[in-house]
Amino acid sequence: MNDITRLSAQGQVLIPQDVIDRLQLAEGEAFDVRAHGDEIILRRLSKSPRRSIAEVRQSLRAIYRHKGPPIPIEKLSWSPDVDDPSLDN
């Protein structure tokens, strides 16, 4: 469906409500604005929903979960530069 909108004196363009609803746009969303010939193209910058820190942490833990036996704390803090006896001269 094509809608007609007008440029305001302040340079604003009203996006029709049916487009806002269909694309689930929210106040404050950012758009990339491009001129292509005599056309203006608005492209939403981010389509992905915002996630809480807890959701991001949970997904990262699932990706980087250690799948082997428990690792002693001594091995976690081991550094080849400091702790490798073969490097001592």
TrEMBL record:
Residues 2-47 form the SpoVT-AbrB domain. It comes from the Bacteria. Keywords: DNA-binding. SMART domains: SpoVT_AbrB. One of its GO terms (molecular function) is DNA binding. This is AbrB family looped-hinge helix DNA binding protein. InterPro entries: SpoVT-AbrB_dom (IPR007159), SpoVT-AbrB_sf (IPR037914).
